[in-house]
Amino acid sequence: MDTTNDAERRGTLLHAAYAAADVREMERPLLDDGVPLMRMAANAVAHTAAAMLDDEDVDVEDAVVTLFAGAGDNGGDGLFAAAMLAEEGAQVNAVAVGRSLHDEGFAALVRAGGKILVLDPSAEIPGCASGFTPGEAGERLHAAVDVARRSHLVIDAMTGIGLTGALRGIPAAVAASLGVPAADGRGDLVSPLPDRPALPDREGDDGLPLVLAVDTPSGVGVDDGSLTGAYIPADATVMFGAMKPCAMLPPATFACGRLTLVDFGFDLDGVEPAAEAVDRDLAAGAIRLPRVDDAKYSRGVVGLVTGSARYPGAAVLTTRAAARTNVGMVRYLGPERAQDMVLAALPEAVLGKGHVQSWVVGSGVPDNDGDPELRDIQRETIAALLAHYSTDDEGSAAMPPVVVDAGALDLLPDHVPSQVVLTPHAGELARMLGVSTAEVACEPLRFAREAQTATGATVLLKGPATIVVGDGGHTFVAGAGPAWLGTAGAGDVLAGLTGALLAQTGTADPDPELVAETVASAAYLHGSAAAIASESEQRGWQEPELFGMRGRSRRFHTLGHPIVASDVIGAIPDALADALS
Ligand SMILES: NC(=O)C1=CN([C@@H]2O[C@H](COP(=O)(O)OP(=O)(O)OC[C@H]3O[C@@H](n4cnc5c(N)ncnc54)[C@H](O)[C@@H]3O)[C@@H](O)[C@H]2O)[C@@H](O)CC1
């Protein structure tokens, strides 16, 4: 990414996430120059820990802190940070989960008066017991978890970007006891996340301790945001150098808690991010400003084949949402009852076929429900339209963008160009790929990418933070919406809004990257409209704070109130205005 000035650098740091391997590459020249990165990292962790204790009205000198330290540099960061807290008077218990500890960090903590408990019988840590029986190892594990639960703060420095696969061995056992067990140990729960309300403060006791994660929460999929193994959910994470994908991608982003990013001064120029978060600027770029000589046709026309006799409301929601999203006209095709309802709710709608710059199909249209013989007029219309998008069809590249939602997903030709946009939720994506909804919930990026690769379409996977994967795997996250947005019809609104933004790009055979950006912008504006409608400051994804910079506090104060999908439509113009302001 280009970062020619400070504002651009800041924008990139706050909205781009980089693969662990790229982070290591960016660290190298600084380490070669002797920049004390570990001390800088530890300093930020200690400061954040003190601030968290302060929030709980606990003075550092009265605090009991438990550190879980792995054998790698992540453990080193934690040991130095814990030493700083011990020097300030905190009572620090360090739990070594590996066979060794970072030498200098260990020495610093011992000097500062920290106590060390070893869990691995084969550990070789100077001055610490080892060679104990498996029975005693189990007792030590229980004791460590017990001490942690009774601490004011737990610092999780078991693994950072050096984690390979899911946690194994002692770190896995610690995470399973203290945090959340592996996916296969969670029974038939679909979500890998703890059952906590999306509230500003830690209200209510969910049995989890207050946790500060060092660089990444231990056990999260650093590069793909997955949560398949045991992990420790954090209330706050201090991340070093640059955001890793787990900070941005669901579900791992929700295991990070509040994010603080420490700018090490990496040279970000020319390094491709693994994922980008949509911000106002990107969203503003997807909104076509009216020209003095504009007329309804030049501003974009959206055609919708949505709603059905069974779900006529979806026709109303999609058409109204599209009409509110800065287009010149919406055309509606559907059964008579739905037509009547659309006209009653939106007299501006035009019924029947005609030229369009984008299509929206499938919202509120029944799927085949396991019956391939099902006959439905909407499905037949959609199937005939989608047949033109098959890459076997010579004209497919010149077809206008189409949003394929809900009941139309099973009508998709085998392979399509990237201006075909699929908008499944986790359950629909699971059905498309023949996996379970729980699997998609634990590894949404993996399955969104699989769907993109398999079909060629741009894939928008709906969720509290929405993932968009475009041609070539280009990945965006949009998380402007509060949890109040999970309400019937919200997906219909998103489909209409997305179709309308795509109509504004205006060209057949559009640049695949532009399609992905536009679609991600639609998800952002949808969330932003919901935030406005619900008057909530809670977000599906919130940018990190930069360590040492005075910024707007990440804490949200206004919880807001419930909304219905129609409220979101009402707020779309304000969301557009907000992006453009
Ligand atoms: N490179 C640097 O100089 C800097 C690195 N920093 C820290 O160093 C971390 C990376 O350090 P490392 O490369 O040593 O790696 P980590 O410390 O993240 O992880 C390595 C440790 O995790 C264990 N481990 C790996 N996979 C596991 C699994 N599946 N189950 C259980 N244990 C597992 C390994 O046995 C090893 O003990 C960063 O995340 C960051 O915290 C910071 O100090 C800043 C500077």
Features:
single chain, 581 residues, alpha/beta, Rossmann fold, UDP-N-acetylmuramoyl-L-alanine:D-glutamate ligase, 2 domains, 11-stranded mixed beta sheet, 8-stranded parallel beta sheet, 19 strands, binds ligand NAX
Set out the fold topology.
Layout: H1 6-15, E1 16-17, H2 20-32, H3 37-55, E2 64-69, H4 73-87, E3 91-96, H5 103-111, E4 115-118, H6 134-149, E5 153-157, H7 169-178, E6 211-214, E7 236-240, H8 252-256, E8 258-262, E9 275-277, H9 280-285, E10 301-305, H10 313-323, E11 329-333, H11 336-345, E12 350-351, E13 358-361, H12 377-387, E14 402-404, E15 420-422, H13 426-433, H14 437-442, H15 444-455, E16 458-461, E17 466-469, E18 475-478, H16 490-505, H17 512-534, E19 545-546, H18 565-580
Parallel strand pairs: 2-3, 2-5, 3-4, 5-6, 6-7, 7-8, 8-19, 9-18, 10-11, 10-13, 11-12, 13-14, 14-15, 15-16
Antiparallel strand pairs: 1-9, 16-17, 17-18
Helix pairs in contact: 3-4, 4-5, 6-7, 10-11, 10-16, 13-15, 16-17, 16-18, 17-18
Bound molecules: ligand NAX.
Ligand NAX binds next to helix 2, helix 3, helix 4 and helix 7.
Subunit structure: Homotetramer.
Catalytic activity: (6S)-NADHX + ADP = AMP + phosphate + NADH + H(+); (6R)-NADPHX = (6S)-NADPHX; (6S)-NADPHX + ADP = AMP + phosphate + NADPH + H(+); (6R)-NADHX = (6S)-NADHX
Cofactor: Mg(2+); K(+)
